[in-house]
């Protein structure tokens, strides 16, 4: 038997020593400061409860669509609020990357941009086999991925492939993502 614990934007399910943290901000788990803060808190609580492994899951068609762009745009030129939003996102990414137990990203759907970043911060990435895509598509909208995010991608797929993916803003499908090592396994 497992227990279900409810936080505002993260649903935690405990399976023995494995804690499943599910992003729960419909419809596409857009990463706003509240979701990012709840993820950091859920990781802390899982570790405090003795978790020996973490599974980070998202929605059924979209793992996470990345940063909540409408929210960021709504901030206008409020520099403090923009900084707070980016800080919350990077704190969540760092909390995953620094987690002392194994963290597996279980992606049952698309993982563009910030969704891909969260997955890159995990130790192992599983993507549903299907029409799902993962990648850093920032250049498609005229943005450049920050250096730290570029380094995360290079660590996973190597510097040359990372550069090609970033320049193109590529979003490989599941089979291609597996072939190039962006994901470790496909779930059928």
| Order of SSEs | EEEHEHHEEHEEHHHE
Let me know the number of strands.
9
Helix content: 25-40%
Shape: globular
The total count of helices amounts to 7
β-strand amount: 15-25%
Low-pLDDT residue spans: none
Largest sheet: 7 strands, mixed
How far apart are the termini?
Answer: 25 Å
What Rg, in angstroms, do the CA atoms define? 16 Å
Structural class: alpha/beta
Q: Mean pLDDT across all residues, rounded?
A: 94
Q: Reading side by side through the largest sheet, how are the strands ordered? A: 1-2-3-4-5-7-9
Description:
With 188 residues, the chain is α/β, with parallel strands linked by helices. The chain has helices at residues 33-48, 69-74, 79-97, 114-120, 147-157, 159-168, 174-179; strands at residues 3-6, 10-15, 18-23, 53-57, 102-107, 111-112, 124-128, 134-135, 185-187. Strand 2 and strand 3 form a beta hairpin. Helix 5 (147-157) crosses helix 6. The model has no long low-confidence stretch (mean pLDDT 94).
Descriptors for this entry?
21% strand, alpha/beta, 188 residues, single chain
In short:
The protein is α/β, with parallel strands linked by helices and 188 residues long.
What order do the helices and strands come in, and which of them pair?
Blueprint: E1 3-6, E2 10-15, E3 18-23, H1 33-48, E4 53-57, H2 69-74, H3 79-97, E5 102-107, E6 111-112, H4 114-120, E7 124-128, E8 134-135, H5 147-157, H6 159-168, H7 174-179, E9 185-187
Parallel strand pairs: 3-4, 4-5, 5-7, 6-8, 7-9
Antiparallel strand pairs: 1-2, 2-3
Helix pairs in contact: 1-3, 3-4, 5-6
């Amino acid at each position: 038997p497992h227990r279900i614990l409810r936080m505002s934007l993260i649903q935690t399910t405990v399976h023995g020593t494995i804690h499943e943290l599910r992003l729960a901000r419909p419809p596409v788990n857009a990463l706003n400061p509240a979701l990012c803060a709840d993820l950091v808190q859920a990781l802390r609580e899982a570790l405090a409860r003795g978790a020996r492994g973490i599974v980070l899951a998202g929605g059924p068609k979209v793992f996470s669509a990345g940063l909540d762009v409408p929210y960021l745009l709504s901030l206008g030129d409020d520099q403090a609020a923009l900084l707070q939003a980016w800080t919350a996102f990077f704190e969540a990414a760092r909390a995953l990357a620094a987690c002392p137990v194994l963290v597996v990203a279980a992606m049952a759907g698309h993982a563009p941009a910030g969704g891909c970043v969260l997955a890159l911060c995990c130790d192992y990435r599983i993507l549903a086999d299907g029409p799902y895509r993962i990648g850093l598509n920032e250049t498609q909208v005229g943005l450049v991925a920050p250096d730290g995010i570029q380094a995360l991608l290079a660590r996973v797929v190597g510097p040359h492939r990372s550069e090609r993916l970033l320049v193109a803003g590529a979003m490989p499908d599941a089979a291609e993502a597996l072939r190039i090592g962006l994901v470790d396994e496909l779930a059928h």
